[in-house]
Amino acid sequence: MGKIATPPLNDSTNGWNRILPPRRPHPSLQADILVDWVVVGAGQAGLAAARRLAENRPGDRIALVEAGEAGDGAQGRNAGFIIDTPHNIGSSLEALATARDYITLARAAIQSLEEQVRKHNIQCDWEAIGKLHTAVTPRGISQILAPTRKTLEALNEPYTWFEGDSLHQRIGFKHFSAGIHTPGAILVNPAALSRGLADNLPPNVTVYENTPVTTATLSPEIRLATPHGSIRAGKAILAVSVFAEQFGILRNRLIPISACASLSRQLSKEEQEKLAGLPSWGLTPANSFVGVTVRRTRDQRILIRQNMRYQPQLRREESSYNAVRLHHQDLFDRWFPALKGVTIEHTWSGFICISRNSGAGFGEVTPNVYSSVCDNGLGWTKGTISGLLIADKATGIDNPLITTYEALGRAAGLPPRPFRDIGIRARFSWELWRNRHEA
Ligand SMILES: Cc1cc2nc3c(=O)[nH]c(=O)nc-3n(C[C@H](O)[C@H](O)[C@H](O)COP(=O)(O)OP(=O)(O)OC[C@H]3O[C@@H](n4cnc5c(N)ncnc54)[C@H](O)[C@@H]3O)c2cc1C
Description:
This protein is of the alpha+beta class. It has two domains: 2-77 and 192-251 and 358-428, 3-Layer(bba) Sandwich (FAD/NAD(P)-binding domain), CATH 3.50.50.60; 127-187 and 256-354, 2-Layer Sandwich (D-Amino Acid Oxidase, Chain A, domain 2). Helices cover 32% and strands 24% of the residues. The strands form three sheets. Strands 1, 2, 3, 9, 10, 11, 12, 18 and 19 form a nine-stranded mixed beta sheet that branches. Strands 6-7-5-14-15-16-13-17 form an eight-stranded mixed beta sheet. Helix 2 runs parallel beside helix 10 (379-394), helix 4 (93-119) crosses helix 10 (379-394) and helix 4 crosses helix 11 (400-407). The model has no long low-confidence stretch (mean pLDDT 95). Flavin-adenine dinucleotide is lined by residues 4, 7-8, 40-46, 65-68, 73-75, 77-81, 212-213, 239-241, 243, 259, 261, 305, 350-352, 373, 375, 377-380, 383. Flavin-adenine dinucleotide (FAD) is lined by residues 4, 7-8, 40-46, 65-68, 73-75, 77-81, 212-213, 239-241, 243, 259, 261, 305, 350-352, 373, 375, 377-380, 383.
């Protein structure tokens, strides 16, 4: 029996959640239950897996168990980009084939999410306005944007190149010097979308929120303990992201990274007029570790996402947010001098699960137990499609996209700690130093 030593501990800082109306969570588990399937984790992967399982097996009983509340894990703490083209693509034939596979999978995920948003009228500020991939320096332009442009051309993907004034006029500020706009990305309030997906699952899924799994036995029988009840299940899907190792799976393969984001207060009508450019936009940085993701949201706030850290202890202290907030306020004041007096209202952090080779933790990990983790920071597309496909795989549905997903690779092994920590920290420092111009 495996004890979960460090279950998720979500604080109440998530700005996307705090700007939404209060929501009543599904009741926590208060009994001992027997189900056909248990899905652990209500992130993008778990929500998609539970939904597809229910569609594939309408007569089965499915429990979806979440330690916190829907929309308050990483699924609701991200920057809200649903991205259909890979960020930085190599130019080899193999890299192009991988990019094509990614695009196919990402668009299948977007189609599935859009269907849910329309069907259930989920109010999540869904905006099909594309996104800009931006660079600050000539080096960022020549090393990242120019090759990305070439690759988009090779893939026959539409894009528009913006540079200097043409970029500044779109976004209303001058920090970035060039950007590639790709039209297929969607921008959302991620907490609103996650809540909406969790609240509109098929009737044979029972959602238990505020129900952390505290001990897990996966073999020979699946038995999970939670604070006020237990679950016995025929089969399980573990969609627990960076917490997977604690369930005894994917040991020494996953790299937990924490990232911070902030939202400003809402701009007044007068402030909106002062901020030139389009009424809403989103941009991702050439280097996602060093650079800054920025959005002008549909409800007229500025989002800043930055400050990534290797966090093997799976906790980021709330006390560290103040320094991040001050830094984000400083960036805001420098970039938007016309908006003097507009304050950063919310700062929070969340976990991203990456691997050394960008591979995933997808498949059957032990008889009757499947995992859908490690989307390498692309939760909305890779996480969603991974959840849908793991449910198909577990129920024996012959979906050709399973092979496409598996071709993206399996999370590679890492050395044991403390060698892993030393190696990752050294690599991180090198990346930060090498790309410091893009900060
Ligand atoms: C600041 C930030 C910005 C980001 N920006 C973007 C972006 O713009 N676009 C994008 O696509 N991705 C983005 N990401 C990444 C994205 O949020 C993640 O990749 C995605 O949420 C991972 O989905 P998941 O379902 O695998 O895991 P999660 O969303 O982390 O869900 C896993 C769930 O499992 C639950 N869980 C874990 N252990 C237990 C347990 N013992 N018992 C019960 N439940 C448990 C957790 O509470 C959690 O809710 C960003 C992430 C951060 C932090």
